[in-house]
Amino acid sequence: MTQKFMYGTDSNQFGELSLPEGPAEKKFPVVVSIHGGFWKDKYDHSDFTDLDKQLVANGLATWNIEYRRVGPSGGGYPRTFEDVTNAVNYLTTLAKDHPLDLDRVVVIGHSAGGHLALWAASRYQHQADELGQPVQINFTGVVSMAGVTDLEAMWVDQQPLPMMKDIVPNFMGALPAEAPDRYRLASPIDLVPIKTKTVLVHGTSDDKVPVELSQSYYQKAQAAGDSVQLVELPGVGHFDLIDGASPAWGAVKEAVNRLLDKE
């Protein structure tokens, strides 16, 4: 069963809640899924629709969130971040009428969604700031799927590519040198330790988000004392991770199961 719920008044402020079948008294662990697409309007939550069906078939509830993105929907810094927080926190409202186990919630995200998933995991019991309120859900774990762990490093990597070089500044509203504090607030690598079990899944043949970003995050998070695992997948590309028939997606499901102790 899948239902759409609005967590805000904008047409992009919604999520799709999917529940497995089960006894009425049973509460289900939850996977929050955050799609990627370099934060652009042309990509949307449908990237996770079929993947979520597999998670639901495995006995998990899913909350597939949409958010305002760069383009006509008016997203970018700080609105995208505010939306992610509000969407996650809306789980506390949904749990009043739906069998959700909010003590067992994992957040996953692909590419730009991996960036937002890691960022959201850092916001539990956080001070309110220009990016909004704290996240109210204490995540059991986070899985970054080829996530953009370092915004400035992603910007540097994209400079030789004319069609890509403005993606990060367009999202952040400034170049790194123009707003270093803004980048520090938004870049996961600058937010460790996040004190949440973390799994980074990344293909070594990724030509969109280099695997070195996950490697650098892993090293810094581990040094900071976080519980973090890096799963490098030889020969795997960027979009293999969201191919429901791919062994790469299987590695993501395994990570989710481990975090929720479902193996």
From TrEMBL:
Protein name according to UniProt: Esterase/lipase
Sorted UniProt keywords: Hydrolase
Gene Ontology MF terms: hydrolase activity
Sequence ranges assigned to domain BD-FAE-like in this UniProt record: 24-220
Keyword Hydrolase part of the UniProt annotation: yes
Membrane-spanning intervals of the chain: none
Organism of origin: Fructobacillus ficulneus
PANTHER family: AB HYDROLASE SUPERFAMILY PROTEIN C4A8.06C (PTHR48081)
Pfam families associated with the record: BD-FAE (PF20434)
